[in-house]
Each structure stands twice: as C-alpha cells, then as structure tokens.
Design brief:
Number of helices of chain B: 13
CATH superfamily of chain B: MetI-like
CATH class of chain B: Mainly Alpha
Number of helices of chain A: 13
Helix content of chain B: over 70%
Number of strands of chain A: 0
CATH topology of chain B: MetI-like fold
Oligomer: heterodimer
Largest interface: A-B, 93 and 93 residues
Shape of chain A: flat
CATH architecture of the largest domain in chain A: Orthogonal Bundle
Structural class of chain A: mainly alpha
C-alpha cells in the first residue's frame, strides 16, 4: 500500500518536473520562434501584428535573397569561417605544445610563462583594446588584415587553452609512455606528436569547441581590426546591416536568422559533443 | 646529449613554446604594459607624439561622473543578473539530472542561446521587447506591456537582466550538471537510508559537495556580466538617454567615439583593478571551498 502511494507520488513529482522543464524550454526558444514566424512575412504584416502566424499578405520568401545580398552574407560567412578555422587549429597546436614543455620541465622560463598566463586571465579586454589599436594600427599600420585578427585571436586564447592542456597532460598522459618512446629512439618532438598529442583528443575537442564558438561570435575585437566591408565577419556584418536597415524589419528578421543558422545547423549534428565538451571543460 | 645544458633547454623551449610565447607576449603582455604607459600620456588617436601628462588622466577619470554612474549601474546589473542566472541554472541542473525522459534534449535546448553571439541575441530580443511584447500588450489591453520596456531607464535595465539570464543560464546549468554528476550515488543513497527527503539530500549532501561548481559559476557569471558589451550595444545601445551604458561601453565610447584615449585607458585600468580583485577573490574562495569539501 505504502509502495503504491510512493509510486504515485513519484509519478506526480516527475510530471511536475517535466511540466516545469517544458515551460522553461518554451521561454528559452520563443525568441527564435518569433524570428522564424516573422521572417516569412512582409514588412507591413510584421509591423501590424508580429504575433500572427501568417500575415495578411501571405507567405513570402523574398526577405532572404535581399538580406543575403545586402549584408554580403556569403562573403561575411566565408570570412568568419576562414578566421575561426585557422585560429582554432593554430591555438590547439601551439597551446598543446606549450603545455607539454611546461608540464614536463621544471625550468624557470616555463614557470614564468605559465604564471604570466594564469595571471593574465583576469585582464579584461577593455584594458588591451586601446593599446592594441594604437600599437598595431597607429604604429605598424596592420589593421584591416584577416591575418592580424587571427594572430590576436590566438594570442588571446593561448593562456586558457594552455591551462586546459596543462591539466590534461598532467593527469592523463602517463610519463612511462614517454619514457618508453624515448628508449625506442624518439626525440622529444617525435614523442609529443606520436605519443602525447593523440592522447589529448578529448581536450582537443573541448578546446576546439569553446574557442571556435568564441571566435565565431566575437564582435568587439574583429570590429576594431576589420574596418573594410569585404573583410567583415558575420557579427560585424549583422551589426552594420541592422544600423542601415533597422526600419525594414522583414530584412532584419532574415539577416538575424541567416546569422544564427550556420551554428544552429552545426549544433544539430554536433550537439552531443558540444554539450559534453563544455561540461568537460568546466570540470577542473 | 646533455639535457641539463642551457643550449638544450633553450632549443627545447623555443621548439615547443616559442611561437606561443611570442604571440602571447605581443598580444597580451606588450599591449598591457604599453596601455599602462598610455594612461600617463595625452593622445588624440592620430598624432605621432604622445605628450607625457602624469596622473592627469586618472584625475579626469576620477572626476568623470558618467563613468562612476556606468560602473555603479554595472554593479547593480551584475549583482541581480548573477543571482538570477545561478538560481535558474541550478534549478534547471537539478531537474535535468533526475533521470527524466528527454533530459538530454532539455540540456541541449537550454544551451542554445550560448551558441549565438551577443550582437545577434541583442537584436532578436530588441524585436521581442519592441514589437512582440507591445503587440501582445495591446491585444490583451495590458498597460505595462503595451509600451516598450526598452523606452524607460528602469525597463532597459530589466531587459538587460532578462537577456543575460536567458543567455547564460544554460551554460551555468552545464557546470552544475557536472557538479551533480560528480556527487557519487552511494552518498545520496546513504542519505535516503538515513531518512532524508529528496530536497534534504540536495541541500545537505549535494550542495556542500558541489562547492567548487558554485565558485566556478559565480565567478564566471560575475566576470561575464561585468564585461558585458555586445548585448549592451545591440539591445539598448545605451538608450534611453545614456541610462543603460555599462562600464565596458563607457570605456569604448570614451576612447573610440570621443577620442579621449588617455582618460579612456585610465578608466579601463580601474576596470582591470576591479576584475583583478574579483579574480584574486576567486582563487582565495576556490581554495577555501576545496579544503572545505
């Protein structure tokens, strides 16, 4: 009898919890739903009632091609992709190598570098942005190059990535394996690439996900470095587009959806890895 | 091969950490020191010369009322947002670790706002506040909803907080999920055998064992909220009447809009000191929490 009562209570509790989850979930996705509903409406229909499923003038697709053209979508998407991929790959390579030499050697230079990296994590970007622009723009004239942005992305992400690889090498790479490789005639360089690096796969995935998301979505740094239309990344293109066409709400809806779509599609496929990667990145 | 010689060490260090040292140095360390130097000069952003002016930039920064207003506003906004983010995130984490059907789906769903940059999120919510809520308010005849919240100073702050909670709760939830999962089932079972209810087991067993998750989430959300810029720019752009300009935006405007690079950089350094204090507190509290757990 008691068991039955407990079972009923448990069912009620589960039902309640699922109800709460569904309500919160709806609150989380309704802004996206609103954009999707309105992207297929004409400007007049959105203005008269943004909550209608289908506007008085019916279903339209014409917001997309126009927004795509006016925000230079293909070009900006390409810039974002190029910058994100190169920066992420290079960050992983350089940070894992650095972490390796720091973990395995008690040299003063290693300790100093690692200490500086950890300390630098509290520096807010606002402190560095004016000197960066003044130094690289004013003195060296290096603004308006994608390479400059990639260079800075890597520099900024280096400390966090090194820190994560440091933890992974410290706990997950048995030193006996490296010694065996040395006995088999591997140099340190070969040992790193053939033995250590392959063992870092889970951390590589985590760093790749966290950094790629940060690079892809970054706005402030790219907006300071890239001032030419043909170099804009997707967030800059969206911001400029909004400023120019803010009254043409149909186009705005299309532009916002276009800006979100690439990463949402990627998330559909990599969702499990992304959630696991971020969770793993937080346990340290 | 002598692995103790300096030339061996130099070669090894350069081979593995050389590029990273140069990049990190040129992008973080050099600009930081150069930035410190800039706070003692007056520079208009164009001219080649940077006259030395001593502490006058700091004096300007300290007497810049707008800056202190922005900083105070940022404190209030961050305090409220951080508390709400963590409450929502913790409750969600609790709900998605009960073994319910579809909990992975919910976890993935709550994380979605984190995938999208602040600029785009801000514009999406601007549409929600300016158009959708207003249309809803007019339809149901509600006075508070039929005027855009973004049009009043208090409303704009509330909007900033709502968007931040919505944006970060999913991320913090994942950290709390990791915390819940790190508490071993044996301990929870033992608590049940001792007569704990579900709620008691969370309060007296899980939460103390998750201390490090709390520290991590708190400081992550504090620094994120304190540095907010993207959402500030796209959602309110400081409007109405500069009443929602946060500290980061003020520094940006000071430097790049008004070309007051010296005072702007001095204000940025004050921001850095605040962040450094938060960072040191994190290390300190984190160590204490670890010892306690």
């Amino acid at each position: 009898m008691d068991n039955q009562k407990a079972a009923v209570q448990k069912k009620i509790a589960h039902g309640l919890m699922i109800a709460v989850l569904i309500v919160v979930f709806l609150a989380f996705i309704f802004p996206f739903i609103l954009v999707i509903i309105n992207v297929f409406k004409t400007k007049a229909d959105i203005t008269s009632n943004p909550l209608n499923l289908i506007g008085a003038h019916g279903f339209t697709m014409k917001n997309f091609p126009e927004a795509m053209k006016k925000m230079n979508f293909v070009r900006s998407f390409g810039n974002s992709l190029f910058i994100t991929v190169i920066s992420t790959v290079l960050t992983i390579l350089f940070a894992s190598m650095t972490a390796f030499v720091i973990v395995r050697n008690k040299w003063k230079a290693c300790g100093a570098l690692f200490g500086l990296m950890i300390a630098s994590m509290v520096i807010p970007f606002q402190v560095l942005m004016i000197p960066l622009v003044s130094f690289y723009g004013g003195i060296f004239g290096l603004l308006n190059h994608r390479a400059t942005l990639i260079f800075m992305h890597i520099g900024f992400s280096m400390s966090m990535a090194t820190f994560m690889f440091h933890g992974a090498i410290h706990t997950n790479v048995p030193i006996a394996l490296e010694e065996a490789a040395t006995i088999d005639g591997c140099s340190r360089w070969q040992t790193f690439w053939k033995v250590v690096f392959p063992l870092l796969k889970p951390t590589i995935a985590t760093v790749a996900i966290i950094d790629a998301m940060a690079f892809w979505n970054d706005y402030l740094l790219p907006s300071l470095i890239l001032g030419k239309k043909e170099l804009y990344t997707l967030p800059i293109a969206t911001q400029i587009f909004y400023g120019t066409f803010s009254t043409d709400i149909g186009l705005i809806m299309a532009a916002l959806l276009l800006a979100m779509l690439p990463i949402l599609i990627l998330y559909l496929f990599l969702q499990r890895y992304i959630v696991e990667g971020v969770t793993a990145g937080s346990v340290k | 091969m002598n692995t103790n010689s300096n030339s061996y060490k130099f070669k090894q260090y350069t081979m593995f950490a050389g590029v990273a040292t140069v990049l990190f140095g040129l992008v973080v360390i050099v600009p930081f020191i150069y930035g410190l130097y800039l706070t003692f000069t007056s520079w208009d952003g164009v001219s080649k010369t940077k006259p030395f002016v001593g502490f006058s930039n700091y004096a300007t920064a300290f007497s810049d009322v707008d800056y202190w207003h922005a900083l105070g506003r940022t404190f209030i906004y961050a305090a409220i947002a951080v508390i709400l983010v963590n409450i929502v995130a913790f409750v969600l984490a609790f709900l998605v670790t009960r073994g319910l059907k579809g909990q992975n789906f919910f976890r993935a769903g709550f994380f979605v706002p984190n995938l999208i940059g602040g600029i785009v999120l801000g514009y999406v919510w601007k549409f929600v506040f300016n158009r959708a809520f207003v249309a809803l308010g007019t339809a149901i005849g509600s006075g508070t909803l039929s005027v855009s919240w973004l049009s009043t100073p208090t409303g704009a702050m509330i909007c900033m907080i709502i968007v931040s909670v919505w944006q970060y709760a999913g991320y913090m939830m994942l950290i709390y999920v990791a915390g819940f999962m790190s508490v071993s089932e044996d301990v929870i079972e033992a608590a049940f055998i001792d007569g704990c209810t579900n709620l008691q087991s969370v309060i007296h067993v899980s939460i103390p064992l998750m201390a490090s998750s709390f520290v991590q989430c708190l400081f992550l959300s504090i620094t994120r909220c304190f540095m907010v810029y993207d959402v500030n720019l796209s959602l309110t752009n400081g409007e109405p009447f500069n009443s929602s300009v946060m500290a980061a935006m003020h520094v940006y405007n000071q430097a790049f809009t008004y070309k007051n690079f010296g005072p702007g950089q001095a204000e940025a350094f004050i921001l850095f000191i605040v962040c450094a204090v938060i960072g040191i507190a994190q290390v300190y509290v984190g160590k204490k929490a670890e010892v306690g757990a």
